[in-house]
Amino acid sequence: MSSAVSAMTDAFPLVRVNCARCGCWDVDHVIQTPDYDLHIDAPFEISSCRTCGHIYTSVRPDRTTLFSAFYPDGYLCYGGKRGVAGLIDRMRMEGQAAQRAKMVEKFVGQQTRVKLLEVGCATGEFIKTCRRRFGWEVAGIEPNRRLSDALNREGYPVVPSTLEDAKIIAGKFDVVSLFNVFEHLWDSVYSLKQINRLLKPDGLVAMEIPDFDSPSRRRFGRHWFLYHLPRHLSHFTKSSLTGLMNECGFEKVAMLKQFRPTVNVLSLQYAVHDKIRFNPVRSFFSAKNPVMIAAGIFFEIVQNKMGDSNILTAIFRKTAAVPEPIISLLQERTP
Q1: How is residue 64 annotated by DSSP?
Q2: Quick check: 236 and 212 in contact, CB under 8 A?
Q3: How far apart are CA 18 and CA 189, in angstroms?
Q4: Integer Cα distance of 156 and 169 in angstroms
Q5: Residues 184-230: pLDDT tens digits?
Q6: What sections of the chain are H helices per DSSP?
Q7: pLDDT tens digits, one per residue of 81-119
Q8: H helices of 109-174, where?
Q9: Upstream peptide bond of 72 is cis (omega within 30 degrees of 0)
């Protein structure tokens, strides 16, 4: 064990995991990055399986530590900002929820009495929008107990759990959504089979995920915001996602690029702050600087015009049930 890995293992437990798709331990190194959000200089690592090509975070905190220490109440999806920043953040989340609801309704079509489950519903804007606009029967899964309790008090049935541990009746839902959540799941392959089990025949999966083929990933290298280690545990291109979904009983319906300019801004901020200690320069290259935001919008427009994006929306339809029992291939070792 290297001295760096040993030091971080003393601070919190790190584990090395195998490929959740095929069970293989034989991998190629892709990249190693620290946690730029919490400023933790640990050797989190992404690898590519030599057998099946699945790309995943192979060195990560153990599961208990990851979900207790790396998702604080102030996490960016938890709506903890106050004042003007909080108002802007709520407007952003409500706008995204409306956009997503309109998109999902399009693929649901004329179906009535729709039952929808959102995995990782956070503050609940999406399920609230779907109930209010369409009258759908909605439910959620959210591991943050503060958020899940708040939604339950508002009358939204939310299970305070991860998807892997949630106890939910099979074959109940017409739609399962995971917006910027699938990549966070501890075992993406096992979880996808669980989603298959929860869906009715011909049910839909709607997800937003980072695109590992994004030109921004190559441009920013280890500073690409959407590596987001150690929280992002699986990493997909359009083709690798389609292949895994096919294996788990789904067929592709659509893939759509998304407009998310903050990814470029935050990636540049990571790069500058990692290399420069002069505060005036660091302040300029900040995601709070309107000039930087404008630049991020410009580059995202150019990238979208070229047919690329940092984040893609994928819609898949269930075409076959997965065999029972559902078994996880994921194993852990000491790094």
Answers
A1: H
A2: yes
A3: 12
A4: 17
A5: 999 999 999 999 999 999 999 999 999 999 989 998 999 999 999 99
A6: 3-11, 63-69, 83-108, 125-134, 145-153, 188-198, 215-220, 238-247, 262-275, 279-284, 290-305
A7: 555 555 666 777 788 899 999 999 999 988 888 999 999
A8: 125-134, 145-153
A9: no
State if pTM tops 0.85: yes
How does pLDDT run across 265-285, given as a tens digit for each residue? 888 888 888 888 777 777 777
258-262: long-range contacts (C-beta < 8 A, 24 or more apart)?
A: 258/208, 258/309, 258/310, 258/311, 258/312, 258/313, 259/300, 259/301, 259/304, 259/309, 260/300, 260/309, 260/310, 260/311, 261/293, 261/296, 261/297, 261/299, 261/300, 262/225, 262/287, 262/293, 262/296
Distance (Å, whole) CA 123 – CA 220: 31
Burial 59-87, CB ≥16 within 10 A → b, else e: bbbebebbbeebbeeeeebbbeeeeeeee
